[in-house]
What does this fold into?
Amino acid sequence: MSSSPSSTVRKAVIPIAGLGTRHFPASHAVKKELFPVVGADGIARALFHYHLLELEAAGIEEICIITQPGEDEMVKRYLRGPDDNYLKRLEKYPALLREAEQMRGFAKRVSFAVQHQQEGYGHAVFQTKDFAAGEMVLLGLGDHLFRGKPVSPYRELADMAKVSDGKSVSAVNRISAGELKGYGTIAGKRRVEHSGVGSISKLVGRASPRADVSQTVLAAREDARPAALSHGQDFRLIDVSLIIEKPAVAVAQEKLLVDGLPAGTWLGWFGMHLLAPSIYDILGEMIRDDVRDNGEFQLTRAQEIQRQRHGYLALEMTGAQRFDFGVPDDFVASVQAFRHSP
It folds into this structure.
């Protein structure tokens, strides 16, 4: 049995165990998540390096990277940085010397889980069960990057542990019909933020003056409200009633409705999740019983099972950006967009 999750999120998981097939032959020479990406500060880093920066900004203490066999050494070498002779060459570039020092700091906080067979995203996540050790964990797609203002999207999502009552929470954003084939998509009812009610954070039933929103009201102390639920950002937290992986348009039109969205718009996975510990029990059951979709153990199916058993929440990301590096054309576009994003 999993232990009760804390409202403080300390751990995060970044999977980079994919083969990068769509980037072949470049991915045969260099792993996709090690491709160079230039930040807004003009410094070129490996793609996965930006996850470490964002997670540090979000207050995460421990990070587990999922790799293929032997690839952990590749990442360890990167984080160890250059030898002393090379460091002397960096002395005339103070910003780069600080990067090397910071990388060595990351090396002390990063651990690894190995996915020995390519059996799907859910299978990869299951390899981090021992790392999670009964705690809630943040999960971010290794070939996506994220930015947000005024705080990291990872911080926004981690803050949801304060009000989620132990449920998993997935970040979602608005997608069109043409994007449905690429994302898990949800249906649900929005919660209404009502601040300053009561002395403790709790969920209370209350009649809503609006017919198009849930009758659930989130009551929280002013000092307990997460930054993501600040004034003027009501209705971002959603009680999920259905999760479907890459639905057909007709299915989405019939089953995947969320109040407040324009016609022809849905809420799909943004690329990061806050996962309650029971996700590992469910993934373990799926692997034991060989429950697959398209030949693989899918995380989205596990999330829908978790919703059925324990409930599930989603947070609509309205002030954050996602950069997809998964295929060559998207990589080219995202490199430019990420470099010049504020």
In short: The mean pLDDT is 88. The first helix runs from residue 26 to 29. The two ends are 44 Å apart (CA to CA). The chain is about 30% helix and 25% strand.
